[in-house]
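About this split. The held-out portion is used to measure sequence recovery: a designer receives only the structure tokens and must propose an amino acid at every position. Recovery is the fraction of positions where the proposal matches the reference. Here is one held-out target exactly as it appears in the evaluation file.
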């Protein structure tokens, strides 16, 4: 897929085109908990996604974008090394252990 097409699709989805993002091609790891997924499986997946974010070269830009969105416009799951719940609230990764 060309960079122009990738950027256009990201713009349509409302996400920025962050060239070099470590999550590229791994989107399934960052999704919020699925209904058929156990809490332990999800916590493990979310922890893995968070660790990918920590080493991402565009983490600061991604976090800036996330924080610029109104809570009802934020994607759910792991974004910018943080967890965004169904209400759009941003939680630190350490808070994942308290989610049931």
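Reference sequence for scoring:
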């Amino acid at each position: 897929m060309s960079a122009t097409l990738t950027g256009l699709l990201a713009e349509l989805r409302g996400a920025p085109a962050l060239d070099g993002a470590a999550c590229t091609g791994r989107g399934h790891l960052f999704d919020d908990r699925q209904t058929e997924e156990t809490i332990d499986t999800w916590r493990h997946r979310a922890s893995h996604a968070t660790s990918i974010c920590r080493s991402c070269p565009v983490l600061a830009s991604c976090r800036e974008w996330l924080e610029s969105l109104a809570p009802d416009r934020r994607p759910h799951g792991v974004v910018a090394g943080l967890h965004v719940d169904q209400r759009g609230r941003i939680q630190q990764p350490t808070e994942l252990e308290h989610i049931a």
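Annotator remark: Residues 1-12 have pLDDT under 50 and may be disordered.
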